[in-house]
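Quick one:
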Amino acid sequence: MNTTPCQAAPAAPLRRRLAALLYEGVLLFGVSMVAAGIYAALTQQRHALQGKIGLQLVLVAVLGLYFTWFWTHGGQTLAMQTWRVRLQRADGMPVGVVRALVRYVLAWLWFVPGLLAAHLAGLAGVWPITAVVLTGMVAYATATRLHPDRQFPHDAICGTRLVDVPRPATAAKRA
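Output:
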């Protein structure tokens, strides 16, 4: 693994970081479906509510492995590569396994406060819960205004940064 610091890169624009988050959700739908299919086959699950807690734990673990592996092997998930965003430590060094795992756990702050608020309010139904969770996500994204480098709160806590990856030089520009 490369242990030399990356050049001081500017923070990735919030718009691209949010686009990468949205695209990540699309990609993770497929990853989750494959993991759920394997879980259902191995446990002989016949009903969606049978083994629900086990499935949820498996999915949290699979997603943790996905993010940890990509963040520690180049600093970019597939969505981050598409949107030219890279994760690195605040000092420019690559992210290690422990820091990646801590970041993964803290990144759930995007969703947990809204889910908890919906639960405590006794909300039922997809639309009310979605509205509360999305409101929490907007508030979380807005919190970047409080950080001097415009990083998300979980990145500030973990000592990581989402940085801009420059476009690769084209053949015309090289000539």
